[in-house]
Amino acid sequence: MKSRFLVPLMHALAGAAISVQAAAASFSGPMETTQWRVDASVFACKLYQQVPLLGQAVFLHRAGEQQRFYLSEINRQLAPGEARLYALTPSWRAFGQHQELGSVTIEEGDEPIRLGWRDSQPLMAQLHEGHQLLLRGDAWYEGESGVDVVIEPIRFRQALGEFQDCLGRLLPVNYDQIRRSSVHFPGGTEEFDDAERERLDNLARYVLADPYVTALVVDGHTDGTGLRAENLELSKRRAEFVVAYLVERGVPEDLVQVRWHGERYPVASNRTVAGRAENRRVTVRVDRFEPDPDAIARAD
């Protein structure tokens, strides 16, 4: 998404209060109950605050990805377009400055604001310093001059510590990154280099951590060089080599299905060196089922 946090817009509005717009819809939580919380697992770290009647303000770091920030809406309030973002000195502090952080783009959908790692860092820094964040945008509904969303710094520092502890336990990859994996081989061999080993190591770590993985389907392939019967046998050895490697790292053997196809299914032209390198491969498909949260709740 487009944002302009990092342009030189940050200037102090010394002594000037950021007043609520006339007829604006304002969303913020009460001080006595509003706080930051953390959902932690080896798959993702989520640092979030509920904004009553609106949704959530979320810092999310999935395994294998960079941190991002998003604002979710359970009830649509913000109209697509540009919105302004401010850092405010909380009302319980006697002195301080208000800063305009810049503009963000409001998009349609359940996450009208989505910011990447670089643009999420100023927000985290302002909350860590005890500043409120005020988002001021246009209202989706006619008859209102705008929408104000206030994100509080309450319990942010403590929750940030929990969030950072979670980051240290994240897996190196997530399911989207390993659900379809390919390991490539030099010509005529069934062994691979260190980069391919690391790929399989990460895949094994994910499989061992995710109880919802149901199967690994391993398929061996070769390029079109050589005799067809020999290629079929070579693809078998490559597939079995990968299976043995995964089993050595703890993957249950009964999860694995192994197949081999020789030169039958190329993904690139065998007429070029690069194409043949792409075809010398073993693919690993990781199957899993996504549990129904409602069913889990009923079981509890």
Automatic annotation (TrEMBL):
Pfam families: MotY_N, OmpA. InterPro entries: Bact_OuterMem_StrucFunc, MotY_N, OMP_bac, OmpA-like, OmpA-like_sf. It comes from the Bacteria. Keywords: Membrane, Signal. Its main location: membrane. Residues 172-290 form the OmpA-like domain. It is found in: Cell outer membrane. Residues 1-24 form the signal peptide. This is OmpA family protein. It comes from Gilvimarinus algae.
